[in-house]
Amino acid sequence: MSTRPIGELVGLADALIEEAERRKVGLRLLGGVAVWLSSPTGRAVHSLQRGYNDLDFVAVRKGSGALPAVFATCGWEADARFNTLHGKTRLLFFHGGDLQADIFLGEFEQCHKLDIGQAVLRVPRTMPPAELLLTKLQIRQPNEKDITDTLSLLLDHDFGAGSGAQGAAGDDGAGARELDTIRRVTGSDWGWYATCVDSLAVMRTGAERLLAGHAQATAIARIDALASAIEATPKSIGWRFRATIGRRMAWYEEPEEVNR
Length: 260
What we know:
Helix content is 48%, strand content 12%. It is an alpha+beta fold.
């Protein structure tokens, strides 16, 4: 798939979200385009800029039966075979022959599973910052795009972790709620916790490599504060039981790439 101008992708995504809202379907962006929209500071940093060649969405399960009509109205073609096989949890559509839209229904599942409920609709257009961050931190082996996306998010959102850094665009007091989301996930599931802690270490190294000056200091402070907050989160009984097994048993799934 070829890289598309970000403005074109945002326009296509907005048209889909507006049509979904008209049909009372809860649809929100995730992935790189969502990060770009959520991170005005991060996207301006040259070393964090990247190309975009697809769209990714999550949809609340209630009302999601209208999604084929949403995409058809906006000029998208369904992958009939894939949607027949996987349509309860995931849908694929194509636009202009090669632009792919991947939609997760009711849950986002790659290396770990993240339930998608009405709370995902609390901000317009994209998943909320905490959920966006979790979709990146749940990746067992982050690639360069995952690292740049995560660092972009961290430059614009402190996630309420008390880093003391300034300039968190768009947080407007909502950081505590975002941190609650992250703590709830990592405090109840040891597998989520282990992968997130590992990923934060990768992101810290990435910040040292890709950023400099104030941007580097901000990202590292927020990574360290977030890691400390996750460690300090009270853990569930299930978390503590799984921790006794630790890494002797696989705690994550290998994600499956979906292409036409």
